[in-house]
Amino acid sequence: MAGICQGRVVVVTGAGRGLGREYALAFAAEGASVVVNDLGTSLGGEGRDLSTAQAVVNEIRAVGGKAVANGDDVADWDGAANIIRTALQAFGRLDVIVNNAGFVRDRMFVSQSVDEWDAVIRVHLRGHFCVTSHAVAHWRSEQKAGRAVDARIINTSSGAGLQGSLSQSVYSAAKGGIASLTLVQAAELKRYGITANALAPAARTRMTEQAFAEKMKAPADGFDRQDPANIAPVVVWLGSEQSRDVTGVVFDLEGGRITVANGWNDGPTIDKGARWRPDELAPVIGELLAERPPQKKVWGT
User: Fold this and answer.
1) pLDDT, average across residues 168-189
2) How far apart are CA 202 and CA 102, in angstroms?
3) Residue 36: strand pairing partners
4) pLDDT at residue 196, rounded to an integer
5) Could you tell me which of 184, 182, 181, 160 has the C-alpha nearest to residue 172?
6) Which of 179-188, 212-221, 235-244 has the lowest mean pLDDT?
């Protein structure tokens, strides 16, 4: 039986390990041709090694799947263009972008350096922008040429981006930005046949093993809630033709749990109909905060 992504072409960035590797394997198992992008860097983003991506390609080809490796930097404008070019040259088309690549530089805010800040913002936010910009340019040209487009952008946010996480101020800021970016992409790109959704996945990766070592331990038996393979089915479905009516959604995923994030919605409101005086505001703000539903706590608090 053909898989739900039969004939589709998918780019997965940061696909050499962890979540990205599981996405690449799962897409291939459902019939997609996959560009496995990975720099092969350390957890902190240092070094390069294409063999990391090639190992995943070899796994896919060993079971009859189609895949090619790419070692370009997602946050380099020309490199990102080559990621898209790799898909088109190898497989003749492009249907799905999974923006997964990233790394962390965890520090308390008071200890964060500007270089660390710039590095994390670059790979996450600029990386999402560069790869997706080149993909969207291709899809728009296809539509203008009269060819039907049924394309997918799948971004990677995080629970840290949706609610914050101690020692991860820059990572949280970047991932929160990605969630907002997804909403704008969904609103602007629907007219071209492109959907945009985001993930907030919780699973065992190099990043989470370092930040949440105890929680991420594999159990001796039973369901392994933190296995990154648990996240892949939702990602593959989002990349399929079946998801064409779903856009602008952030999916919070862990184990077998699927939660649709409710986003920033208006809470309690009061309108005086005139300008407030500063000395009036203490009881007014206090009343509004008392009426507001409890917020999720920052991770680690």
Assistant:
1) 97
2) 15
3) 12, 69
4) 98
5) 160
6) 212-221
pTM for the model stands at 0.93
Residue whose structure tokens are 């997602």? 74
Please list, residue by residue across 149-167, b when 16 or more beta carbons sit within 10 angstroms of its beta carbon and e when fewer do: bebbbbbbbbbbbbbbbeb
- How far is residue 21's CA from residue 3's CA, in Å, rounded to a whole number? 18
- Tokens standing for residue 226: 């933190």
Rounded Cα–Cα distance for residues 211 and 214 (Å): 9
At residue 160, the pLDDT reads 92
C-alpha span between 103 and 46 (Å, rounded): 10
CB proximity list for 197: less than 8 A, separation 6 or greater? 152, 153, 154, 155, 182, 186, 238, 243, 246, 247, 248, 249, 250, 251
Instruction: List the beta strands (DSSP E) in 136-233.
Output: 151-156, 194-202
* Pairing assessment for the beta strands 250-254 and 257-260 based on DSSP bridges: antiparallel
The catalytic site residues sit at 171
- Sheet with 66-70, edge to edge strand ranges: 66-70, 33-37, 9-12, 96-98, 151-156, 194-202, 250-254, 257-260
Residues in Cβ contact with 95 at an 8 Å cutoff, skipping those fewer than 6 apart: 8, 9, 10, 32, 150, 151, 152, 239
- In the structure encoding, which two tokens stand for residue 248, read together? 């602008």
* 158, 169 Cβ separation under 8 angstroms: no
Q: Which of 61-65, 202-206, 236-240, 282-286 has the lowest mean pLDDT?
A: 202-206
Coil, strand, or helix at residue 235? Answer: helix
34, containing H or E segment: strand 33-37
Within 8 A by CB and 6+ apart from 184, the residues are none
| CATH code 3.40.50.720 for 9-260 | yes
